[in-house]
């Protein structure tokens, strides 16, 4: 009988628990990622010194590098620094910026990358995508996904709560992204992947249906694991489609039109997902998204992100240009400026009604 299956590259290690960081050296050795301990470790300027002090006695063979900012130039500078010595692997310990820079640098150097997340603001923890600022604004670069993924809940519990909550918006947006992908399949014949959808959807549902909050370890573990599964869903799909649709186009438009007023990525995509569900006219998914964001203290309305309705209308109008060729509910709705104004105003009014009905 033929054994028909597809091989999916997956991390050797996924470790979500308190105290995971202290095991880094042992994990690198056990998994043969680095038996010599010769690894390059990239950290951010804020938490770097704290993280480094965890290894006063361990990881003697590691060299430490500080990453300052999430630009392509920072990533290239890191490549130049790391290539001067021989290393078995590159380890990124930090939030989204540090991990994105490290992923890109590891890909350029052809070295395995180990991700240690210090917040849960995004699904880049295990994804094959590095998002970096460049001369054109911001770009997404395809890179190998991390070989090992560690989430130390001690670090997460100590991180700014906004940076942790933001991941809820990120993962809730999966459901909207999947709806966009399925519509692109039905209306445009775009290929979809049922396994990628299963991973991305299950991850989002687990977080949305969990009764806990970011103050509890059980919830944090589900959120962390959900974000890791989201990343793997992108590996399976070979595209960011299972977790990025209209929700992300709206967030990219905010990033590009208002770079100095960016909120956390997950905060922006959460509002984007709510707006996308409103455009689809799916009131049950819209209500569930609004309630989930509100319950966890995330922005729901444009004003919660600091934007007037007029500014949000401009964001919506610009959003499709951020991902040319990606068919989402924004493109499907054939929005004219007057329709955008009407929809944005109705969206804002509807949120009030949904929240008051509780
Ligand atoms: Zn995202």
From TrEMBL:
CDD domains: G1PDH-like. Signal peptide: none annotated. Keywords: Cytoplasm, Lipid biosynthesis, Lipid metabolism, Metal-binding, NAD, NADP, Oxidoreductase, Phospholipid biosynthesis, Phospholipid metabolism. Pfam families: Fe-ADH_2. This is Iron-containing alcohol dehydrogenase family protein.
